[in-house]
Amino acid sequence: MAWNEPGGKNNDPWKNRGGRDQGPPDLDDVFKNLFGKFSKMGGGNGGGSGKSMGKLGVGLLVGLLVVIWFVSGFYTIREAERGVVLRFGEYYTEVEPGLRWKPTFVDSVIPVDVQSIRDQASSGSMLTEDENVVRVQMEMQYRVVDPFRWTFAVVSPETSLSQALDSAIRYVVGHSEMDDVLTDGREVTRQRVWEELQAILEPYDLGVTIIDMNFRDARPPEEVKDAFDDAIAAQEDEQRFIREAEAYAREIEPRARGRANRMNEEAQAYKERVILEAQGEVARFEELLPHYEKAPEVTRDRIYLETMEAVFGSTSKILVDTKNGNNMMYLPLDKIMERSGNSPSMKNLLPDLQMPDGQNTQRNSGTNSSSTRSSRFNNGGE
């Protein structure tokens, strides 16, 4: 039977313990007894020993609190961070990485990452200078270089950076044409956004430096996307053709320059050769001049014969002596030589021809100068 059931009073655990009726403990009595003990330790009715025990308890409590306060002041700054120390809420100094200590409730430390490269992106639909709508998405990479300025220059540095990036992109796109933003003007647009963003952030002095600016995407509205894709493909083909033409020009130009240089060198060589030959002729005639002055007729005849020998040395014509007034007979020796295949035996088949006046016909091979001289004198003695 349970103690709290009817007829179970004898089973009450708070009664009949130790021969007396005992109920549950009263919380008020517990707190009174506890405070009474502390009052005795603090110098109550216990006399001198109570006072000494109270002082010892207070000293231990104060020492414990001092130890806790001292231990709680240790903190660590990581390698990539710098700590901004505030003393009573005011900037005090900066601390380097490592294990540090600060007086709790007096100093507070704000760690700032100064080595990691952070990203900040921005995108949206924007109106260009030629009143077209484009959707641009760019991303900025930056790093904190001044922890104090990054912490206290503005209320929210990340929000300020995002708004500044939006403003720079919209300004540059608003002063650019759509074709420049979508095609070959992307690099110029990216550089202009970078410069405009730096100009916006300079008055705020946020303590950051911009590492890079990435032009991630730029596209027209979906309604005209196909037409712009065709236009971009045509411009890419144009650039490809231009590069092919430049490559062809780079291939042909060295060859043309080589030919031009070779022709110049050949012309220079020809010029030098002609000059040397002319100088040689002049020197030869200067050597002949004294002999000509001593015997003009003999020298003139010899020069004439040498010239006629050089002229008729390569011909296959027949010269006939016509000093008796007979007509000159022509023998087509060149035709005969062509028909015979220019064989050596054919030369023996051409005997001297007998003219009607009994004179012999002589074949001029470039070495018989007597017949040449007779022909010259019979033709007027030239």
From TrEMBL:
The listed locations are: Membrane
* UniProt keyword Transmembrane present: yes
Biased-composition ranges for Low complexity?
360-382
Q: Does the keyword Transmembrane apply?
A: yes
Q: Where is the Band domain?
A: 72-232
Membrane spanning stretches = 56-77
Q: How does it sit in the membrane?
A: Single-pass membrane protein
Sorted alphabetically, the keyword list is: Hydrolase, Membrane, Protease, Transmembrane, Transmembrane helix
A Pfam family (short name) is Band_7
One of the record's GO cellular component terms: membrane
Q: Name the protein family.
A: Belongs to the band 7/mec-2 family. HflK subfamily.
Q: What does this protein do?
A: HflC and HflK could encode or regulate a protease.
Share what the entry says about its subunit structure, partners included. HflC and HflK may interact to form a multimeric complex.
What is the name of the protein in this document? Protein HflK
Q: Which organism is it from?
A: Salinimonas sediminis
UniProt lists the gene as hflK
